[in-house]
Amino acid sequence: MTVTASASQTRRPIQRWLVIWVLALAAVLVVFLLQDRLPWAVNYPVEAVVPVADWVSALMGWIKSNLSWLTRSVTAVLGVPLDFALNLLAKNFKFGHGADAFVLPRLSWVGVCAAAFLAGYAAGGRKLGLLVGGCFLYIALFGQWTSAMLTLALISIAVPFCIVTGLFAGIWAWRKPWAERFIVSPALDLMQTIPTFAYLIPMLLLFGNSPVSAMIATAIFATPPIVRATMLGLSRVPSEIDDFSEMAGCTARQKLWRVLLPSARPTLMVGVNQVIMLALNMVIIASMIGAGGLGYDVLLALRALKVGEAMEAGLAIVALAIALDRLSQAIAHKQATANVHRSSASPRFWRRYPNLTLAIAILVVTTLLGLFVPAFAAVPKAITFTTAPLWKAAVNWVTINFFDVIEAFRVALILNVLNPLRAFCEGFPWLGAVFLLGLAGYQLSGLRLAALVAALTAFCAITGLWEKTMATVYLCGISAFIACLIGIPIGLAAARSDRFEKIVTPVIDTLQVLPSFCFIIPVVMLFRVGDVTAMIATVAFAVVPAIRYTNHGIRQVPPALIEAAKVSGCTPRQTFFRVQLPLALPEIMLGVNQTILMALAMIIICAMVGTRDLGQEVFIALSKADSGRGIVAGLAIAFIGIVADRLFNAWTAKARARLG
């Protein structure tokens, strides 16, 4: 009797909300059908658009006029270490002027490749050393050395800046919960959802077209992971360690720097790995405002439709990304497992760090040899290779032999799926979207979330960007849907088979380290520019979280529950669908959330291949240096991501609470 009453009580709210949603959808349908009488509810009135873009442009103009001394000072200060890194890795040190100038060559490519091998060997053994050293040697032999070193120089300065800034911000947020709640977390959410292109516009306006602008944009974009890692790492330090440090008489500063932060080092190193990968991704995009390097090579090749050159530069980016990712992961793992021991009689430096000492010696010797032997200073052209003609020939062969099939697929997809969906989204009443999303927020988490979601959605309409916003939602939505349709079944299969997981894991690890540019190049080769290209590239970029979170969610179901299901007589199929899958659903939905955010980030970059959405607005604003237009479009994109993130997080929290 009690069970029946409980079931009926659970069913009543579901039935009530079902009625509410049916009425809400009916009301929106009525508004759409009566759009001739209620045009303001479907299309936001032009005369009511709030000129936020003009206000932002005026503010940026005032900053540029009145605070130019500050921007010049920042440029001068940051330019010193950046110029040193650029000269050390990519250019030459020049002392004096004219014919009497003395030139000290950059680090020898031979020495850098050897140092990369030694760094990998010290962090993870011979196999990792060969991988890291091989990646650098590949870059050299394929003629991409100077561009790759320009990119690496920017990363080598931006990453330490990110780590120091993020560490102090994370410590402050951990110590002050009010700061974490009201300042740091909202700022991090905004920083991680604003598209990469939108960072470039204010940097271009304030700091000019220079490597310093690119470095500042990269540092801002790549800082959030280390802030979050610092807060998470410090909060996870066992209370016993904290109590012991107080009993030992440590001051607050000693406890933080000598006890808590060393204890949180494994989590911090994971954050450092993420900072490196985000910095690499952003430096590639920042090539558009003076960074140069591999990203600029890809950009020029794509603009000129030189498929082979674009592919070679893209593969060099991949090699650099794999080397940095594997090296930072190995260092993080080593820091997590190392048992730090310092004896009272500390051995000499070269005994404690033999690999570092050897690397420095090799770099010095090979660089000095470069003064006398040109082959050490620069990669000889005689030993370099190029695969550009092969890539071009391959694309031509595919185009000639499979053009009809590819074109039929592209046209069918556009006519039967993309165009109808785009028309539906762009014609959806803005007032109805605000109302329905607010209702979803209220159902999931109450009035505060409803107000936040409704306000952020309304911002896209009142700034005159509703049509572009819905174009972005349509392309992001279909891409994320297809990514989940592919990724979730693969994740389920990986969770049920260890052998299949061993096959899938290296593939998704590789996809995760590829910079976003590299997904566009092969798709453009086959499908040219347009929405189909953007969708396919976005699906490939965003499918990883759907696979990873689904696999992890199924595997983290407690074994005791699975055993209980087996004891109760459940078949393996029943155990999977009635026990494992429901309990893993919150984790799977987190993967869907991350898939949507990654799809949104990639859609913006796909503005380079002809999409007509908010990404195009940012791209046009960047080309015209229109800060107001670009920043407002960037905020609209960020608000789409925040709305999706908040709703999915609220749904996941509710599901977890329901499942206990």
UniProtKB/TrEMBL annotation:
UniProt similarity note: Belongs to the binding-protein-dependent transport system permease family.
Protein name: ABC transporter permease subunit
Classification via InterPro entries: MetI-like, MetI-like_sf
Chief place where the protein resides: membrane
SUPFAM superfamilies cross-referenced by the UniProt entry: MetI-like
Domain ABC transmembrane type-1: 148-328, 469-648
The species this protein was found in: Mesorhizobium salmacidum
Membrane topology designation: Multi-pass membrane protein
Transmembrane segments: 17-35, 69-90, 102-122, 128-145, 152-174, 194-222, 275-294, 353-377, 421-442, 449-466, 472-495, 507-526, 588-610, 630-648
Signal sequence annotation: none
Keyword tags: Cell membrane, Membrane, Transmembrane, Transmembrane helix, Transport
Superkingdom field: Bacteria
Subcellular localization(s) per the UniProt record: Cell membrane
